[in-house]
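Re: beginner question about structure tokens

> Can someone show what the tokenized structure looks like for a real chain? I only ever see the sequence side.

Sure, here's an example I had lying around. Input first:
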Amino acid sequence: MTDALSVFLTSAAATDGSHLRPYAVELRHELLAHALVTRAQGILTERYGLPNTRSAAALLRAVGREHGLGTVRLAAALGQARPPRAHQPWFPGRIRLPPPVVGFVPAASGRPPPLPVFLDALRDAVCAITRTGMADVQLIDASDHTLWLESHCGLPTEFVNFFAVIDDTTTACGNAARKRRRVVVEDVATAPDFDETARAVMLAAHSRSLQCTPIPGPAGRPQGMVSTHHDQPGHAYTGAELGALDRVAREAGAWLDWHRTTTVRDALEDLHRRAQGRRDDGQGPV
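And the corresponding structure tokens:
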């Protein structure tokens, strides 16, 4: 690290309260996840007359694990979905389509990969395209437009904690999401895309230049972001690299659309069936 960069990081860290921000963001991430799960437990308990929130929590865990979603993601989907009608399928008449072909995920028989496995494959694909070992993938929460860090490599714990949830435009990925187009940062040390605290965390992670490419979603709105980082300023991306990034982003967007309308809805319908069965049978925890 250069002397000038060391001085910059020291002065940024000395800013009033800035050293506490990563911990505050990490705590906010945990609180948001807890709030999603707590709300989902309340919905299940009230909607299906389950005996207690412990039973609802066990049901969420079981169904989330079965469908490869995890408790928090299933809880978020439950909170956002329109309530089902009693004793009917949650999404009647829907057509279940096979997953789209994705070039960076090896074809495999049986079930499609769980979401975390798919996102790790996407991360590795953009690393290969841009010839770097540092990358991250974020998904956007449609309810409040925050970006959640879902997959990463080559980045330190401080970076991961600090950028666990992004809810403003004081970062390049936030700006790319707001503008709905790729943002390329030639030098993190001088770019206006970051506030000073975020800049210090980026530089401490040896990210001196980067690109953030939106993952397209419905109606042109991004549903996520893929970012790659380089340890030298002024990294130049070739036209072929940018074209390849756009291609894998489109493929990822199509797969995520399928995942939301197929895997997530399968899980919600399974949750609906199991919860109704427990109510009708008068059973306790799963």
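Each token stands for a local structural state, so reading them left to right follows the chain. The two ends are 54 Å apart (CA to CA).
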